[in-house]
Amino acid sequence: MMERKIIFESDVKLAGVLRYSEGNCVPAVLLIHGTLEQDRDGNMIEHPDGRKLYRKNFFLEISKHLCKAGFATFSWDRRGFGESNGPRGDVFSTVKDAIAALDVLCSQNVVDSDRIAVLGQSAGVYTACLLAKEDDRAKAYVLQGGLYRDYSEIMAFNYLRVKKYAESSPKNLRWVEENDLWSLVIGLNLHVIEKHAREGRTECKVSYKDRSWRIPLDPLLYTPEYAPSRQFRYIRRPTFIVHGECDLNVPVEDAYMIERELRINGVDVELAVIPNSDHSFQEVAEDEETRLKERMSLKSFKRPYRREYFEALIDFLRRKLK
Fold this sequence. Notes:
By secondary structure, this protein is α/β, with parallel strands linked by helices. The protein has eleven helices and ten strands. An eight-stranded mixed sheet has the order 1-2-4-3-5-6-9-10, with helices on both faces. A two-stranded antiparallel sheet has the order 7-8. A hairpin with a 3-residue loop joins β1 (2-9) and β2 (13-20).
């Protein structure tokens, strides 16, 4: 696998990397970040509570497998991370950056611009849908771990679970305070956070014991027009929906909701649920409590990836990017 580092312009200066193997005019995949992917390699490099983070290199692993199979990939550091400039962006700046990245990918001499797929991971599914609204160059889409239900529901799914676990025993409370205090604080203040967001506020101040945080909010995500379920109407090309069977970030049921929506819209859609895998298609522990604790502590990032995920992804891309 070869790498070509590229500095490009959105409304800020961004830094990315084209990865490819031998050959010219090859099909390519644009990799769009989720919340847990901040740099070009698909790592979360900065957590709001400042905790230690493990490198999972998700996009790097995808690129290694795709390049070996004859594809190129392009990914970049999100604005405000790595070598990319600018303040941390909102939904619309993320879409703008994705379109700029697509421009870069299509302009590369080793890439066939008529055979481009867009891969959105988690929150990147939302970005991919809005990109499809603005740009029709993608020949296919891969939607991984995507959210369909309302944003308020997924907040409750993720953070009330942590609150419930902490309240189950003093021992569990101490463990959560040491390993995922951020999620506990959000869970304890979820009603206030949602209330502020629905009022149009862009920040909510919360506290726990002797600490306080300012939590950034995106009020648009709570409005009917920008609900996740409303964005799939923009996807019109062949689409691969893929989800981890044991995903603790977005329930696997959302994958079936997305599939149903796209089929109603007449889209050529395929669905794969990867067994024994989490939100990033990494292996999961056998017992549920260990899975939950590894999700909260982010130690799940250290687990190996499921081979079935890469096989399913490559199979789809080979057939749709002929």
